[in-house]
Amino acid sequence: MSQSTTPSRIGATRTGELVDHLRGDIAAGSFAPGERLTEGALATRYGTSRTPVREALRVLTQEMLLVHVPNWGHRVARLRSTDLDDLYAVRIGIESQSVRRLALGIGDLTAVRGLLDTWDVGPDQRVADVNLVFEDERFHEGLAAAAGGTVLLPLLRQINRRLHSLRMREFVDADRVQRTYEEHASILRAILTGDPTLAAALMHAHILAGQRFVRESALSLGLVAGVDEVLDDAEQGMSAEVTS
Q1: How confident is the model at residue 229 (pLDDT cuts 50, 70, 90)?
Q2: Crossing angle, helix 50-62 and helix 7-27, to 10 degrees?
Q3: Which of 70, 132, 152, 191 fits a 20 to 30 Å CA distance from 118?
């Protein structure tokens, strides 16, 4: 039997496809915030067995799209709006420092040029796709990695995991995708021309624009709890697990 048709590879393919389908449905709001997801119901919905469902739930829990509640199951993750704002505030500090350092010539500018090849493209190559969130995270984490040091990148990765499920919605909005490409390219050009003030200002504005989009869409869909909204007992437990 060839390697491409072994049971383990077939299982991995089914799991990967299921993760993509489930991730996309969560981003599209097909599952309500806090909704319980069971292996049996998902297996029926997606026409598969429980084994790939179980693995998909594990993967999406790691991505913080879902939260596992011990002795109960999985639910669609939900944060408070104040937590969302705090995470973006920390992101601004981390990423402004990254681009400022790079624009001063400190770090790996070859990596920055490589990112420019990806993001400085024409409108016809800027396709809205929920999975673009991964490329976007590679952009931001790539800048933190290029800036060097041992602090910025681990912190940014932790924050991105917390925001991942909410930020996916940015990349199914065609206008937001166009602006993301333009803003990324502008930030990279400011770094490569050696302007730390401009690079930091552009990154600050870029993150704030993303925050506004994500906050508005998440609140409208009930994906985050408002300032005055009280989470129920199960969601309190979920929030505690997400923050641990």
Answers
A1: low
A2: 60
A3: 152
CA–CA distance, 72 with 57 (Å, rounded to integer): 14
Query: What is residue 129's three-state secondary structure?
Result: coil
* pLDDT 10s digits, 73-93: 999 888 889 999 999 999 999
What is the Cα 195 distance to its own chain's centre? 28
Name the DSSP letter for residue 148.
-
Best CA proximity match to 152, nearest among 217, 102, 190: 102
Tens digit of each residue's pLDDT (9 = 90 or more) over 59-75: 999 887 899 998 889 99
Q: Is the CB of residue 66 less than 8 Å from the CB of residue 37? A: yes
Structure tokens given for 95: 């990423």
Token pair belonging to 158: 């932790």
Residue 220 has what pLDDT? Answer: 87
Interstrand relation of 66-69 and 73-76 (parallel, antiparallel or unpaired): antiparallel
pTM for the whole thing? Answer: 0.73
Residue 153: its H or E element: helix 152-167
Strand ranges (DSSP E) for the chain?
Answer: 36-37, 66-69, 73-76, 79-80, 224-225
pLDDT recorded at residue 243: 37
Sign of the torsion formed by the C-alpha atoms of 102, 106, 108 and 110: positive
The yes-or-no verdict on residue 41 having pLDDT over 50 is yes
The string of DSSP letters for 93-114 reads HHHHHHHHHHHTT-S-HHHHHH
